[in-house]
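Hello,

Following up on my earlier ticket. Below are the two sequence lines again, exactly as submitted.
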Amino acid sequence: MRWILIFFFYKVLMRPFLSIFVGVKLVNSKNLVYSGPMIVVSNHNSHLDTMSLMASMPIKQLLQTHPVAAADYFGGSWFKRFLSKWVLNAILINRAREVGDKSPTEQMISYLDKGHSLILFPEGSRGAPEQIQEFQKGIGAILKRRPLIPYLPVFMTGMGRILPKGEKLLVPFNAYVVVGMPCIVKAHEVESIVEEVKQAVLVQRDQFHHQFNV
Amino acid sequence: MNYFLSNRFADNKEVLSIILVILGILIFATVLFFILGKIFRGDKVRELQQRTKSWWIMASVFILATVLHPSISFVAFGLLSFAALRELASISKNIRPEDRRVIIWCYLAIPIQYFFAFMGYFNLFIIFIPVFMFIWIPFILVIRGFTVEIGRSMSVLPVQLMFTVFSISHLAYLLSLPELTGFNAGGRGLLLFVVFLTEMNDVFQFTWGKILGRHKIIEKISPNKTWEGFIGGFVTTVIVAFFIRFLTPFTAFEALFAGAIIAGGGFIGDIIVSAIKRDIGLKDTGNLIPGHGGILDRIDSLAIAAPSFFYFVYNLYYA
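Thanks for your patience. The regenerated structure is below:
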């Protein structure tokens, strides 16, 4: 049942909307086809970030890929919780957890161990357009415990103009999603893993700017 | 299906023959580059093959948009304007982040302009963007209240509308022109005439430039443009215009003149977009069509050639 809603939302609604109306373009979209588990890591400027990644995936992979969202933001009401689970295919994690709750890392690893994939925005929140903030430690904690799971660095540009944080009106602009090659992490400590992943995203940005001479 | 195919299409021998010519050229180019690709292996032939492939896509979309029901053609040209304006607004560094909401007004002008073209309201069609939007955009900018560098936005946004919406909508208006007695090809013929010649002019200038090019015209803006390419393309376009004048109501002399307007206008549009790109430091304005850059790179010549040609034919035969 669930796949009908997810398929309808991402493939029937979002995909033509994003590519024809909004103007989101994928660079190296072939790299976005993978077999899980995989951690897709990207910079974050807009709600459209998740939509663009999910809408460009094959349907089978789509069902086993979960965007990771903050429970305090997306779990606020029953309607939001319903949307997250049944339409967006997201998993909600507690950023500020109570004693005894399952930790966010545990939660995400349990999905990875089932062979599912995650979409992570390690910046935490949508920052100012075209600026990449410091990455949070979560990605490091996961990859330290599951060092053999590959991650996929993705760089996005232009999303912050279409639908920036705090804006309700969507304005079409050209935006690009640059998908890198899957990597296995080399570092062993949490901090250095976070740094390595961040560098991988920055490499995608530099290659994109070089390729299009921007 | 009869509803979609225009009823005059089957009788329109002129339009049918030029479509066959376009398909013939594409098949010839495909076969030629396929054979060349077997003999010489290299990036240059690969690029030519890639370009031919894009021409196939563009030609089929364009031909379909022309022969199907006129309302479909208007929607197709409107979408073309929309994509071009979106691209130009995206690459422009003269638009401030505060102008996001004003750009919505520019997008809204597209359906209105094409509605006027569809209904054939000529007076509204020619004043809506150059007069009304020219006042409305600065007014909205002032209402929004961000005054830092507001003059730049006031000038850039109307110009972008003129270049991508006003100019391209003239192609659509050709389909709304009234029928002339004794001229069978009609608006579709004129549309095919101007688009075919503009695109062929690009190809001719490119080809002559590659074969003979020595003396640069404006090296600072477009290093690949040479006098040999420009003159060769110009002369070839004028000659082709003479031979396909059956698409138009023109006399032989008028057809030659129209060819000259299209070749000259195409060149001007081309270097204007080149200069905009050079200002930003971009090579291609997007990557929608492989081997062909973005949408702007495709419509740059049309943006000047289409209105120039439109007013030429309008004042001669429809005014």
